Protein backbone atom coordinates (compact mmCIF):
# COMPACT_ATOMS: atom_id res chain seq x y z
CA UNK A 1 0.00 0.00 0.00
CA UNK A 2 1.06 3.57 -0.62
CA UNK A 3 0.41 6.49 1.72
CA UNK A 4 0.45 9.90 0.08
CA UNK A 5 1.57 12.33 2.76
CA UNK A 6 2.93 15.76 3.51
CA UNK A 7 5.34 16.03 6.45
CA UNK A 8 3.54 16.94 9.66
CA UNK A 9 0.14 17.22 7.99
CA UNK A 10 -2.89 15.18 9.07
CA UNK A 11 -1.42 12.29 7.08
CA UNK A 12 0.93 11.77 10.03
CA UNK A 13 -2.01 10.15 11.83
CA UNK A 14 -2.38 7.12 9.51
CA UNK A 15 1.41 6.94 9.27
CA UNK A 16 1.54 6.52 13.05
CA UNK A 17 -1.30 3.99 12.99
CA UNK A 18 0.45 1.89 10.35
CA UNK A 19 3.63 1.93 12.43
CA UNK A 20 1.72 0.96 15.58
CA UNK A 21 0.02 -1.91 13.74
CA UNK A 22 3.18 -3.10 12.03
CA UNK A 23 1.75 -2.52 8.55
CA UNK A 24 4.40 -1.68 5.93
CA UNK A 25 3.60 1.31 3.75
CA UNK A 26 5.34 2.95 0.85
CA UNK A 27 5.41 6.67 1.58
CA UNK A 28 4.88 9.07 -1.29
CA UNK A 29 5.71 12.67 -0.43
CA UNK A 30 3.14 15.09 -1.77
CA UNK A 31 3.20 18.84 -2.29
CA UNK A 32 -0.35 19.93 -1.52
CA UNK A 33 0.25 23.40 -2.96
CA UNK A 34 1.48 22.36 -6.39
CA UNK A 35 -0.58 19.12 -6.33
CA UNK A 36 2.48 17.13 -7.40
CA UNK A 37 4.03 14.04 -5.87
CA UNK A 38 7.78 13.61 -5.51
CA UNK A 39 8.08 11.97 -8.95
CA UNK A 40 6.45 15.03 -10.50
CA UNK A 41 3.20 13.22 -11.29
CA UNK A 42 -0.16 14.93 -10.85
CA UNK A 43 -1.57 14.21 -7.39
CA UNK A 44 -5.05 15.20 -8.56
CA UNK A 45 -5.03 12.16 -10.81
CA UNK A 46 -4.67 10.06 -7.66
CA UNK A 47 -6.92 12.03 -5.34
CA UNK A 48 -9.14 14.63 -7.06
CA UNK A 49 -9.78 16.20 -3.64
CA UNK A 50 -6.22 17.45 -3.74
CA UNK A 51 -5.29 16.88 -0.13
CA UNK A 52 -3.61 14.22 2.00
CA UNK A 53 -3.88 11.60 3.28
CA UNK A 54 -4.68 9.23 0.47
CA UNK A 55 -4.07 5.51 0.76
CA UNK A 56 -3.58 3.50 -2.40
CA UNK A 57 -4.63 -0.08 -1.72
CA UNK A 58 -2.93 -3.13 -3.18
CA UNK A 59 -5.73 -3.49 -5.75
CA UNK A 60 -5.20 0.08 -6.98
CA UNK A 61 -8.21 1.64 -5.26
CA UNK A 62 -7.60 4.88 -3.38
CA UNK A 63 -9.10 5.52 0.05
CA UNK A 64 -9.26 9.10 1.29
CA UNK A 65 -10.20 10.96 4.51
CA UNK A 66 -8.06 10.40 7.57
CA UNK A 67 -10.74 8.99 9.92
CA UNK A 68 -11.67 6.34 7.33
CA UNK A 69 -8.05 5.46 6.59
CA UNK A 70 -7.03 4.97 10.22
CA UNK A 71 -9.99 2.67 10.84
CA UNK A 72 -9.19 0.68 7.71
CA UNK A 73 -5.59 0.22 8.84
CA UNK A 74 -6.60 -0.72 12.38
CA UNK A 75 -9.08 -3.29 11.09
CA UNK A 76 -6.35 -4.98 9.08
CA UNK A 77 -4.63 -5.78 12.38
CA UNK A 78 -7.47 -6.17 14.93
CA UNK A 79 -5.07 -7.77 17.40
CA UNK A 80 -3.37 -4.38 17.74
CA UNK A 81 -6.38 -3.01 19.61
CA UNK A 82 -6.09 0.27 17.73
CA UNK A 83 -9.84 0.24 17.08
CA UNK A 84 -12.62 -1.58 18.95
CA UNK A 85 -14.48 -4.28 17.06
CA UNK A 86 -17.27 -3.35 14.63
CA UNK A 87 -20.73 -3.32 16.15
CA UNK A 88 -19.56 -2.68 19.70
CA UNK A 89 -20.52 0.36 21.72
CA UNK A 90 -16.83 1.18 22.02
CA UNK A 91 -16.51 1.35 18.22
CA UNK A 92 -19.19 4.01 18.07
CA UNK A 93 -17.40 5.91 20.81
CA UNK A 94 -14.30 5.82 18.65
CA UNK A 95 -16.21 7.16 15.66
CA UNK A 96 -17.75 9.81 17.88
CA UNK A 97 -14.29 10.97 18.95
CA UNK A 98 -12.86 10.86 15.43
CA UNK A 99 -15.78 12.97 14.24
CA UNK A 100 -15.24 15.49 17.01
CA UNK A 101 -11.52 15.83 16.30
CA UNK A 102 -12.16 16.08 12.57
CA UNK A 103 -14.92 18.69 12.59
CA UNK A 104 -14.29 20.68 15.75
CA UNK A 105 -10.50 20.70 16.05
CA UNK A 106 -8.81 19.73 12.78
CA UNK A 107 -10.82 22.02 10.51
CA UNK A 108 -10.70 24.92 12.95
CA UNK A 109 -6.92 25.05 12.49
CA UNK A 110 -7.23 25.59 8.72
CA UNK A 111 -7.67 29.40 8.65
CA UNK A 112 -4.82 29.81 11.15
CA UNK A 113 -2.37 28.51 8.55
CA UNK A 114 -3.43 31.11 5.98
CA UNK A 115 -1.40 34.35 6.07
CA UNK A 116 -4.30 36.43 4.79
CA UNK A 117 -6.69 35.41 7.58
CA UNK A 118 -7.85 38.60 9.37
CA UNK A 119 -6.63 39.06 12.94
CA UNK A 120 -10.19 39.06 14.27
CA UNK A 121 -10.92 35.74 12.61
CA UNK A 122 -7.64 34.33 13.85
CA UNK A 123 -8.46 35.33 17.44
CA UNK A 124 -11.97 33.90 17.21
CA UNK A 125 -10.71 30.56 15.85
CA UNK A 126 -8.11 30.28 18.61
CA UNK A 127 -10.75 30.92 21.24
CA UNK A 128 -13.00 28.34 19.60
CA UNK A 129 -10.19 25.79 19.71
CA UNK A 130 -9.57 26.43 23.40
CA UNK A 131 -13.26 25.77 24.10
CA UNK A 132 -13.15 22.51 22.15
CA UNK A 133 -9.94 21.45 23.84
CA UNK A 134 -11.59 22.00 27.23
CA UNK A 135 -13.74 18.92 26.65
CA UNK A 136 -10.66 16.91 25.68
CA UNK A 137 -8.87 18.18 28.78
CA UNK A 138 -11.69 16.90 30.99
CA UNK A 139 -11.48 13.47 29.37
CA UNK A 140 -7.70 13.19 29.62
CA UNK A 141 -7.71 14.34 33.23
CA UNK A 142 -9.52 11.09 34.07
CA UNK A 143 -7.83 8.56 31.78
CA UNK A 144 -4.57 7.86 29.99
CA UNK A 145 -6.01 7.75 26.48
CA UNK A 146 -9.13 9.17 24.86
CA UNK A 147 -11.10 5.93 25.07
CA UNK A 148 -9.61 4.53 28.25
CA UNK A 149 -6.49 2.54 29.02
CA UNK A 150 -5.55 1.58 25.47
CA UNK A 151 -3.99 3.70 22.72
CA UNK A 152 -6.25 3.94 19.67
CA UNK A 153 -6.38 5.65 16.28
CA UNK A 154 -8.18 8.57 17.93
CA UNK A 155 -5.10 9.28 20.03
CA UNK A 156 -2.91 9.33 16.91
CA UNK A 157 -5.28 11.80 15.29
CA UNK A 158 -5.51 14.10 18.31
CA UNK A 159 -1.73 14.09 18.73
CA UNK A 160 -1.23 15.03 15.09
CA UNK A 161 -3.58 18.00 14.97
CA UNK A 162 -2.59 19.28 18.41
CA UNK A 163 1.05 19.35 17.35
CA UNK A 164 0.06 22.19 15.02
CA UNK A 165 -0.64 24.56 17.92
CA UNK A 166 2.95 25.79 18.17
CA UNK A 167 3.03 26.57 14.46
CA UNK A 168 0.02 28.90 14.68
CA UNK A 169 0.95 30.44 18.06
CA UNK A 170 -1.96 28.82 19.89
CA UNK A 171 -1.16 28.75 23.59
CA UNK A 172 -2.38 25.49 25.13
CA UNK A 173 -0.16 25.62 28.22
CA UNK A 174 -3.20 25.81 30.53
CA UNK A 175 -4.28 22.32 29.44
CA UNK A 176 -2.07 20.22 31.70
CA UNK A 177 -3.64 16.85 30.91
CA UNK A 178 -3.51 17.54 27.18
CA UNK A 179 0.16 18.47 27.34
CA UNK A 180 0.95 15.34 29.33
CA UNK A 181 -0.94 13.33 26.69
CA UNK A 182 1.12 14.91 23.90
CA UNK A 183 4.30 13.92 25.70
CA UNK A 184 3.08 10.34 26.21
CA UNK A 185 2.25 9.94 22.54
CA UNK A 186 5.50 11.55 21.40
CA UNK A 187 7.47 9.04 23.48
CA UNK A 188 5.95 6.00 21.76
CA UNK A 189 8.50 4.22 19.54
CA UNK A 190 6.10 3.98 16.59
CA UNK A 191 5.38 7.69 16.78
CA UNK A 192 9.05 8.56 16.94
CA UNK A 193 9.75 6.31 13.94
CA UNK A 194 6.99 7.95 11.90
CA UNK A 195 8.16 11.45 12.79
CA UNK A 196 11.76 10.59 11.97
CA UNK A 197 10.74 9.20 8.58
CA UNK A 198 8.88 12.41 7.79
CA UNK A 199 11.84 14.51 8.86
CA UNK A 200 9.98 16.07 11.79
CA UNK A 201 12.52 15.03 14.41
CA UNK A 202 16.11 13.89 14.27
CA UNK A 203 17.05 10.36 15.22
CA UNK A 204 19.32 11.62 17.96
CA UNK A 205 16.42 13.50 19.54
CA UNK A 206 14.39 10.31 19.76
CA UNK A 207 17.15 8.20 21.32
**Helical segment count:** 8
Strand order of the largest sheet: 3-2-1-4-5
- Percentage of residues in helical conformation: 40-55%
Cα distance, first to last residue? 29 Å
| Major beta-sheet overview | 5 strands, mixed
pLDDT < 50 runs, ≥5 residues: none
Strand content: 5-15%
Number of domains: 2
Q: What is the overall silhouette? A: globular
Helix and strand pattern: EHEEEEHHHHHHH
By secondary-structure content and strand pairing, the structural class works out as: alpha+beta
Can you give the mean pLDDT? 96
- Rg over C-alpha atoms, rounded to the nearest angstrom: 17 Å
By CATH, the architecture of the largest domain is named: Up-down Bundle
The total of beta strands comes to 5
CATH topology of the largest domain: Glutathione S-transferase Yfyf (Class Pi), Chain A, domain 2
Task: Determine and state the CATH class of the largest domain.
Answer: Mainly Alpha
